[in-house]
Design a protein that fits this description.
single chain; alpha/beta; TIM Barrel; 6-stranded parallel beta sheet; 12 strands
């Protein structure tokens, strides 16, 4: 292992070990959640349809300031998409307003961005989106400690399984990127999650035949969703999975600012 890899491992281990807020999964696994960050329209129009085909739903982490924009991920969501996905039973979650990294701004500025993101979703969709994902997967111990308790959950991009003790301040999630040639790795993860009776969260971005480096093809997503269903796993949104563990939804976006001491 290189020095850089070792330091990264130590940092992730420390991040996962400290400032935890845990609940027990008990015997509720295996559970699998499919989540989409930012989100590109294809994540809903294509990805949502793939989930709906088997009666499942996904969780969409929204940075409201990106609405109507375009990026390397393609066209991003429109306001009508927010209402439509909620009507179909998908979950709308938060991802800050400006998609800022907590490593590049002050704690106060990041807390304000998280607050503004939640408030914008409340305004646009009339929805309380207190499940959160860190933009770029960037998280610090200071932010985890300050903001974690004021949110229902905070999702990372640190791979792994959410086992018997789920850390609500840092849910683990595994990327779902690329094409069908990644299917063996995905199959191994799903089957290991079944053996462990744990909770596996996948995250991705655009769903296209020629995806960005942060997305996947419809074929890979369909493979993962179909195998998840055949494996006997329950496919739940993040909030549905948390509700099974007795976790209620936090109600106020203002709590983010008070949690940060602002």
């Amino acid at each position: 292992m290189s020095l850089r890899s070792h330091l990264g491992f130590v940092r992730r281990s420390t991040m996962c070990a400290l400032h935890r807020r845990t609940v027990s999964l008990g015997d509720r696994g295996p559970i699998i959640s499919f989540t989409f960050d930012d989100f590109p329209r294809t994540a809903y129009l294509v990805g949502g349809a793939i989930l709906e085909e088997i009666g499942a739903r996904g969780t969409y982490y929204v940075a409201a300031g990106l609405m109507n924009a375009s990026s390397e991920l393609g066209e991003l969501f429109e306001e009508d998409d927010l209402h439509s996905l909620l009507e179909k039973g998908h979950e709308l979650a938060s991802h800050t307003f400006l998609h800022s990294s907590c490593r590049s701004v002050s704690l106060a500025a990041f807390a304000e961005d998280v607050h503004e993101g939640m408030k914008a979703i409340e305004h646009l969709a009339g929805h309380n989106a207190s499940n959160f994902a860190y933009p770029y997967g960037d998280v610090t111990l200071r932010v985890k400690k300050a903001l974690g308790p004021s949110l229902t959950s905070s999702r990372s991009v640190i791979p792994g399984f959410n086992g018997q003790a789920i850390d609500l301040n840092l849910l683990r999630a595994t990327r779902l990127y690329g094409d069908i040639d990644s299917s063996r790795q995905i199959e191994d993860l799903i089957l290991q999650n079944v053996r462990q009776r744990s909770w596996l969260i996948f995250y991705t971005h655009d769903i296209r035949s020629n995806p960005s480096q942060y997305g996947c093809t419809p074929a890979l997503l369909k493979f993962a969703v179909s195998l998840a269903a055949r494996s006997g796993s329950r496919i739940l949104t993040v909030q549905e999975a948390l509700a099974e563990a007795g976790v209620g939804t936090r109600r106020s976006s203002a709590a983010v600012l008070s949690g940060a001491g602002l």
